[in-house]
Write a structure and sequence with these properties.
This protein is of the alpha+beta class. It has a single domain (10-378), classed as DD-peptidase/beta-lactamase superfamily (Beta-lactamase, 3-Layer(aba) Sandwich), CATH 3.40.710.10. The protein has 12 helices and 16 strands. The strands form 5 sheets. It has a 6-stranded antiparallel beta sheet, sandwiched between helices. It has a 4-stranded antiparallel beta sheet with strand order 1-7-8-6. The chain has a two-stranded antiparallel ribbon with strand order 2-3. The longest helix is centred in the first third of the chain and has 15 residues, at 109-123. The two termini are 37 Å apart. Pfam families: Beta-lactamase.
């Protein structure tokens, strides 16, 4: 797709300092900000069937107010949404200059891809167990705070390693990681992670960390001995009937994929990945993931005696509404959501262009309330 200049910088994105037009242009072309590796599409695209009864406007409640579908699309600055019910397309819209050919950034939805690839590597025998120490695959971490941290603790962000995820703070660990990505030096991010101090005993504290997913990506890369984008395409993306190649940010030219962000793909193809999760990691009758992986990955974890609504880089939704029972999300900043509800046989992919990375105020419609209303409307 031809690039629409000018684009913003990566720092401006994370600062949340963009006017609406340049923000949308940049989110369509994040693959232009850094070197990328291609995630090759399927040899033959598999059309998504169309639902005989498409989604109509509906009303739902959120935080004491009543809204409808059009309110949600406008108030939450939705730039694209696709809803699949029983495997069929019942609603598809493109906004803010997008079309069905457009690609859009995923941000932390890439974390779910990285964790899923860890599951594939376990299924393939490259990673032996969730209980393995990650230093077995990344010996460079043997003398770091990650020494003794298991694969399971890494995938659930319970390593105990200190990390500050504040996107808008130029001094945070997350922004230091971004600075290293901008510098494009091979191995610099893993080196940074190896120097972080330990803040808690491994397994005793949950702390959301994009750096943790870069370590997870490096672990998978070392275990399978091939680039993550190639492995993802071979095992999943090219087998889903995807329509277009996707792109994945690299930390340096021809280097390691950024495990926590940087996948850019089409709306329909993101939804196809959602169907893969809905179908428990089975493609055309073949199990790509270990049996029970998605069930385990989408369950809340218990850390330090407290329940945390996080799994293997997925977000369960147990407390918002009864209709979310068994449902989960992959989430990216600025309003990216891949919602999967197995009991309702429903997948919804939402692209967003919210003004700040972690934008929250009383005028924004809570996404979990919208998804509940969507499920009810299609039930």
């Amino acid at each position: 797709m031809q690039c629409e200049l000018p684009l913003a910088t990566a720092r401006q994105i994370y600062d949340g300092a963009l006017l609406p037009d340049i923000q949308a242009r940049t989110f369509r072309h994040t693959d232009m900000l850094f070197p990328t590796r291609t995630i090759a599409r399927s040899p033959t695209a598999r059309p998504l069937p169309t639902q005989d009864n498409p989604l109509q406007n509906f009303v739902f409640a959120s935080q004491g107010k009543t809204y409808d579908l059009y309110d949600f699309l406008s108030i939450n600055r939705v730039s694209g949404m696709l809803v699949l019910k029983n495997g069929a397309n019942c609603f598809e819209t493109y906004q803010l200059g997008n079309t069905e050919k457009a690609h859009w950034m995923s941000m932390s939805i890439a974390k779910t891809v990285t964790a899923t690839l860890a599951g594939v590597a376990i299924k393939d025998g490259y990673i032996k167990s969730l209980d393995d120490p990650i230093s077995h695959y990344l010996p460079v971490l043997q003398h770091s705070a990650y020494n003794g941290v298991t694969v399971h603790q890494l995938l659930t962000m319970c390593s105990g390693v200190q990390w500050d995820e504040t996107y808008t703070n130029p001094q945070s660990d997350r922004r230091r990681m971004l600075d290293l990505q901008i510098a494009q030096q091979p191995g610099a991010i893993v080196d940074m992670m190896s120097r972080l101090p330990r803040a808690a005993t491994p397994g005793s504290r949950w702390n959301y960390s994009t750096g943790e997913t870069h370590i997870a990506g490096a672990m998978v890369r070392a275990a399978v001995q091939r680039p993550l984008a190639d492995y993802f395409s071979e095992k999943i993306w090219s087998r889903l009937g995807t329509e277009a190649d996707a792109k994945w940010w690299l930390e340096s030219p021809n280097g390691l994929e950024v495990g926590g962000s940087g996948i850019s793909a089409s709306l329909r193809d993101y939804a196809r990945f959602g169907l893969f999760l809905l179908n428990q990691g089975v493609i055309d009758g073949v199990e790509v993931l270990p049996a029970g992986w998605i069930q385990a990955a989408s369950q809340p974890i218990t850390v330090g005696g407290a329940k945390v609504d996080y799994g293997y880089m997925l977000w369960p939704l147990p407390h918002y509404h009864p209709i979310h029972h068994g449902a989960f999300q992959a989430i990216g900043i600025f309003g990216q959501h891949l919602y999967v509800n197995p009991e309702q046989n429903l997948v919804a992919m939402v692209w967003g262009a919210l003004p700040k990375p972690m934008f929250k105020d009383q005028t924004q419609i809570r996404i979990e309330d919208f998804f509940a209303g969507l499920c009810v409307a299609l039930d």
